[in-house]
TrEMBL record:
Keyword Nucleotide-binding (UniProt): yes
Domain of life: Eukaryota
EC number: 2.7.11.1
Name of protein: non-specific serine/threonine protein kinase
Keywords annotated in UniProt: ATP-binding, Kinase, Nucleotide-binding, Serine/threonine-protein kinase, Transferase
Gene3D superfamilies assigned: Death Domain, Fas (1.10.533.10), Phosphorylase Kinase, domain 1 (3.30.200.20), Transferase(Phosphotransferase) domain 1 (1.10.510.10)
GO molecular function: ATP binding; protein serine/threonine kinase activity
A Pfam family annotated for this UniProt entry: Pkinase
Ranges where the record places region Disordered: 132-168
Family as reported in the entry's similarity comment: Belongs to the protein kinase superfamily. TKL Ser/Thr protein kinase family. Pelle subfamily.
Amino acid sequence: MRLYAGRKELSMDSFIRHMPHSAYTKLATMLDPGNLWERFAEKIPKKLEMTGQSDAEPRYTYQQIEIIAHQSRQSQRGSATRRVLQDWGTQNARIHHLIAILTAADLLAAADYLHNDLLHIGPAPRNADHNCGSISGDISSEQSPGDGNAGLGAKEQPAEGTDCCKPTSKDNLSSQLDSCSDCSHILSWISGQVSEDAQSGSPASLLHTQCAQSQESDLISLIDLNGIEIQNIPYSMLCHITNNFNEQPLEKGGNLIGSGGFGLVYVGQFHNSFKVAVKCLKQNGQVKMEDLVKQIETEVKTLSKYRHENVVHLLGYSVDGVSPCLVYQYLSNGSLEDRLACLNGTPPLSASLRLSILKGTASGIVYLNSQKHVHRDIKSANILLDSQFTAKVGDFATVCAAPSGASQTVKQVSVVIGTPVYLAPEAIRFDVSTKLDSYSFGVVILEVITGLPAQDNMREEKDITTHILENCEKPSQIHDFLDTSAGMWKSETVEGLFDIACRCLQTRKKVRPNVIDIKPELDTLIT
């Protein structure tokens, strides 16, 4: 116990609201950098008595967490950690609750600060199953069992809630999110004014709504999303925030930010500059309705269950309109592919940023694989970057459940899915294992260190794997292909990355490592 001037003696049973200002400041300096506070907030239970229980209902939804982040960014001296502590303190949370949550979130330095420096009772106890050095331990500490996902690394999004994140009414949506007191005015606007404007506003919005009514029942009947804990967002709201799906490119004043085989991606913006990415899935000659249905089900069912800082966050879906839509966090720095190509005149990525992106991408892949999923389309175009250039693995239309003992047991599929230049040789035999993802990651490593596109029809060897491996008989020869626009590279780092890439690109699946196998080495190279 410790006595502070003018304060009661602090102990494990003291309320966190009684902690001194210096303790709040210290925790903020420890948890705000790198958004570590998000891991802390995710673990806070709705009911204090459930602290430490893996099946506890979370106090904060992922959407609420992101809006707290947004409010903190908007405030000149804002601290997300302080906001969470102050809000949670209103529930009579005690210091022992706080230490338990920090320990569960694997934020041991912060737990030790409270236990040792604030209370002077020695280091905080570790969980029996805690393993500081294990990658699987890192992964599991960032997982929020059974939750939805949205911890958004870049901008903002329409709010929902994992407390009751099921398709819900406007009023229920607002009430779910009002518990985030700092953000309630944003949330009430989203759930109220936007819907009202869309329903009684512009002719274009009304036209979308009227057209939707003829297709809504058929689409909803096809899609099986029973039990999905993520928000069903009204199509009229999406029309409103995307300027009726304005197809002019963003750089020309429109809302279009991307396109693909399944449809178009738009940026949606709320009145407070809160942004989301809206993928509008469209049926055409190449894409059948059953394919759209499968993509929606795959992405929603996968992303609603898991959350990781290196996996893009799905915020909601919409199936009551002309086209089904998926709503994601908005990632302002686009894709790794575009940034390596310096698209639209953006500056080259520095060597240190590239290494950080590789490390983050590997973490995202390891997390997915640990959840028994194979992405099957890892590529630089599907590695998205937030405002801090944190890597987020995206596009989960191709995700497939991994077989038990994924590196040994083959799961048969009937269609080859993925991008050819990134596909492992066994993919043509319809083999699915986590080693598909490690092969693709090897290609991405080559892109990152050389700055060359994965496919270039003007090269003699059109794909980057053949081009580099045919011309680099020795590890040192990779320096001839190094992207010098990234600045200074450490020689040992480059050669180490090339060695990892070569192992990931082994044509024999049996000798090819999984990403989790090479991640410790990758982390060592990049540290």
